[in-house]
Structure formats: structure tokens, C-alpha cells
Amino acid sequence: MQIDYPIDKAPAAPEYVLDVLRDDYRQQCECDPEAIPGVELSMNTTIAEWRDACDLAGWRRVAEFLNRRFGVTYSLDLWRDFLEPEHETTLKGICLLVAKRAVRRKVRPSKLLGSSCMTAGVFRTIKAMLRTLGADVSHLRPSTELHEYARSYPELFLTDVSDLSSGKLPAATIRYCALCEAALRSFGLSLLAVIGGGALKMPYLSLIGAVVAIMSYPTMWITARHVKPTSVTFGDLRTFADLSRKLAGAV
């Protein structure tokens, strides 16, 4: 499939990798109640501190995520050396390792009325990204509303688009389908029931909470993963022009 605006790429510096990890954490704090807000991630942050802050799973899952997130293909055995022991290894090791192979997308200013325009370059780059995913961009203009594209391709906006200028995309507000929202509320209440039942010495309450949690968690996970969100918004950004100006630093 031909792309109307080739996307330049450049080597990913360790500092860029850290910025991406920081931005992922910032976005996660908005949608994951288990994430711990207010943690300042740095090169010296231990893997244990990072995993706690971001509510991350075991090292294998983290290794698979890092390979996928940065488009690298390191073996699990190698990743284990950089992720374990988690209280001794730091994000610096991850950033240096990823930077050896990873590349980043680099926006080229686009020619507009005879001059170079970074905002136009951002817009055309995002349009090219959507097109590679099979999105119909034949009628996509700067004035086009973000709504339908954001809810159809939320992962693209939260990763590749955000990575064009880490830290500038406003935190996402994601509203899921009614079934997912109900399952999320049920899961939260079930955890309270389990904890409350133990504290109040009411085992039947803990049992009910455990049963509800077992039923609601897979429902929540499956619907969140496979059913389009009802809406995905980024602060007061409404159009692609708003988004492009924000990422280009024009506002």
C-alpha cells in the first residue's frame, strides 16, 4: 500500500526510551486504578520501583511488552539479566539496551505555501500512520474530528502518535462499553468485599467477593481488549489540527 508521506526514522537515544516509558506511565495512571501516581521515573529508578508504580506483571511479561513496544527482538534470557534481580537493576539498563536496536519516527516539516511547517508535517505523519493500519484517510483533513479515529485506533494514538513528541499528548480519557464499565465496577466492589470480609471476620462476604471477582475480571479484560471504546478523548483536543499543533509545540 502506497503511503503519501514517507515517515523518516532515526536511532532511538536512551533518553528517548526513558521519555516513552515516562509517558506510558503517565497515561496508565489515568486508566489503571492499581498504578501509583506521583513517581518520578529516572535512569536510576529500580525495576522493582517501576513495576510497582506501573502495576506491571512478572519479568517475562515485561520483557515481551518491551520487545513489542519498541520493536526490538531481544531474547527472554537476555531480558532477564536486565530485569532481575528487580531491586538491583535499573531503567538505565533497559534504556541502553533498547537504544541499541530501536528506531524512532521523526517528523519532517511539510512544505506549506512555500515554507516549512512542522504542524503540517505532524498531520501528514499521523495520516500516514493511520493509512498503514488500513484506515480510510481519503477524506481526512486537519478539520476532521478525532473522535472516530481515536476510538477505532486507540493504541496507535497512545503509542506511535504520542511518541512523536513524548509528554505533549494530554492524558487520555477512555470510556468503555456499558458491559465493560459494569464489570469494572463489579470487580472494584468485589475487591472491597474480599478485604472487608477479612477485616470484619465475615468469611461469607469474602467468598461472595471472590466469586464476583472471578466472574467480572475476565469480562472486563475481554471487552476492554476486543470491543471498541465508546469514546477516547485527549483533553480539549477536538480535531486533527488541534492534535497536530499540540505535538508540534505550536500551542
Identify the notable features of this structure and list them briefly.
251 residues; 3 domains; two-stranded antiparallel sheet
Distance between the termini: 33 Å
State the strand order across the main sheet: 1-2
> How does the major sheet shape up?
2 strands, antiparallel
Domains, number: 3
Strand segment count: 6
Look at the structure and give the mean pLDDT: 89
Residues in helices, as a percent range: 55-70%
**Which spans of ≥5 residues are poorly predicted at pLDDT below 50?**
none
Q: Which structural class best describes the helix and strand composition?
A: mainly alpha
Order of helices and strands: EHHHHHEEEHHHEHHEH
* Number of discrete helical segments: 11
What is the general shape?
A: globular
Portion of residues in beta strands equals 5-15%
Cα radius of gyration in angstroms: 21 Å
Report on this model:
With 251 residues, this protein is mainly α. The protein folds into three domains: 96 residues; 75 residues; 49 residues. The chain is 56% helix and 9% strand. It is built from eleven helices and six strands. The strands form three sheets. A two-stranded antiparallel ribbon has the order 1-2. Strands 3-4 form a two-stranded antiparallel ribbon. Strand 3 and strand 4 form a beta hairpin. Helix 1 packs antiparallel against helix 8. The longest helix has 24 residues. It is globular and about 75 Å long. The two termini are 33 Å apart. The model has no long low-confidence stretch (mean pLDDT 89).
